[in-house]
Amino acid sequence: MSETAQRRGRGRRPAGEVREGVLRAAAGLLLSEGIKAVTFDRVATAAGSSKMTLYKWWPSAGALAAEAYFAHSEHQLEFPDTGDIRADLTAQLCAFVRLITHEGTGPVLAGLIGVAQTDPELSAAFSEHYSAPRRALAVAAFEKARDRGQLRADIDLGILVDQLWGACYNRLLIPDAPLTEDYAVALVANALDGAAP
Amino acid sequence: MSETAQRRGRGRRPAGEVREGVLRAAAGLLLSEGIKAVTFDRVATAAGSSKMTLYKWWPSAGALAAEAYFAHSEHQLEFPDTGDIRADLTAQLCAFVRLITHEGTGPVLAGLIGVAQTDPELSAAFSEHYSAPRRALAVAAFEKARDRGQLRADIDLGILVDQLWGACYNRLLIPDAPLTEDYAVALVANALDGAAP
């Protein structure tokens, strides 16, 4: 149904509702067919919205795909806090590895990061809606752990994000070695204890 | 000049020479215009070879791009071995950060990894010609360091590759935090010493 027909037939839907519907439609295409299926044309058809509406809200189909992925995976952002950083990190990182090795999620996330390399709008949306908030949550958990005396005061906490989740992304994107929960456990142990004797 | 004309005019060039010329032409396009410029059409024209020859040797233009990048950057594979793993890693990782933050190399490497997410032939060629040999060299250096008593015997040496170079790739591909030589130095310190008190 065209936007005009909607307006005449049953009044204009509230913007928030339209936006949610578009994000849901984009997430559906992304998860079932991959990043290349997320075009303004196909999302507009699937959502019953006009392409004009989509153009108004998103600078590119890639940016829409990134926001849709985030809206879909928002609940996975939670970071357990039991007061024991070693246990919390192990739990969080094992859950992350299960997520990104799942056949329905791994290729989608890899595809988003892949296309982001040549699509600056997707890259910006991915950072704004997904990776930067995740990084901030992790650093906040590290700060609390440091205040509890579980991390050294002289550590740049940002690098721990790269040595844990970044190390997992490395095996997702450049699959030369296996990405397993055992690997996640070993990453946490080494990030905390170090490889030197 | 067509292949037929070459054969008549001055004899067929040796295969090795043709192959080198094609790789050089592909690297030139890759470094000057990016991954999307590396098509069989443009490489064949630039190398003065036939497209048939290219189809015979490479399963996809992406696979050709990956091999060209490797041939171009082969000398950067060297791993210093002074007998001090901390110093060698710091030198190697700082050189790696300089390489991947260089405006001529960083976007090319990011573009190759990006396209690899949706091009299995590029992914396989990248692994075979670039990332897997680099990983093997690093693990070999770690094994020597372990034999010298500079790394613990119970460490899975493969994860150190991800916590050092993989951490750098993470900031290249998902640029939420700065990728600098200071970062490289901090990565080495934490991978060896750990973040726990």
From TrEMBL, chains A, B:
Pfam families: TetR_C_11, TetR_N. GO terms for molecular function: DNA-binding transcription factor activity; transcription cis-regulatory region binding. Residues 16-76 form the HTH tetR-type domain. Keywords: DNA-binding, Transcription, Transcription regulation. InterPro entries: Homeodomain-like_sf, HTH-type_TetR-like_transc_reg, HTH_TetR, Tet_transcr_reg_TetR-rel_C_sf, TetR_C. It comes from the Bacteria. Residues 39-58 bind DNA. PANTHER family: HTH-TYPE TRANSCRIPTIONAL REGULATOR RUTR, TETR-FAMILY TRANSCRIPTIONAL REGULATOR. This is TetR family transcriptional regulator.
